[in-house]
Specification:
single chain, 10 helices, Rossmann fold
Length: 216
Amino acid sequence: AERLAAQLQVLDQLRSPELHLAPSADLGSLRQGLATNHRFELIIGRNVLQGASPSEIQPWGTSLAELLADRGQLELLFSRPLGGPAQLLRQATGQFWPFSAELEQMEQEWLRSTMAWELLDSSLEAAGWQIQRQEWTETLLLPVDETLLLRWFGSEATYRPLLAERLPAEVPQTLEQAFRARLGSQLPQTLHHQRLSARLGTEGDGHQRPRTPSGR
């Protein structure tokens, strides 16, 4: 966002678009920043609504319809690793861990549960949005450092408690120790990207624009 704002500063002030930022769970704050009767031509987001419940995701399309101008465009990018920490370490070292099968299955469920892609895609399509989808993968090198260990095994991490609920206590401890032994190294990590491009339908193209509440 900071990089985009800096790029906009070099444009002519009369032609420069306005940039508004808001958390995905609070689209109402975007509405507050708009002048009367103004709407957005473009709304973009990355990994929006992570960990949100279905009841939080389903109304999102209606809220977007109230914010976007006719022919307004929605651009969303969702990115997630194809494997969790245990799978990442196994693929890099060839070493299997106690409870490997159960552990990696739990990781897959955990990774899928944090992404809102499928439910958001289906709810927008059901509301009459025109959607284009694109998927691809890329492999990057993940630095093994203290920041990474805190994200997975720290007191506020979601990963470690997940393991502790269903596996013996020594499993997360052993896994953390294995990563600590590799501090300063890099591990190849494959990411799966999903891009969703959507716009409001109109009667002219065979799709009816999603209705917004009256009395505006």
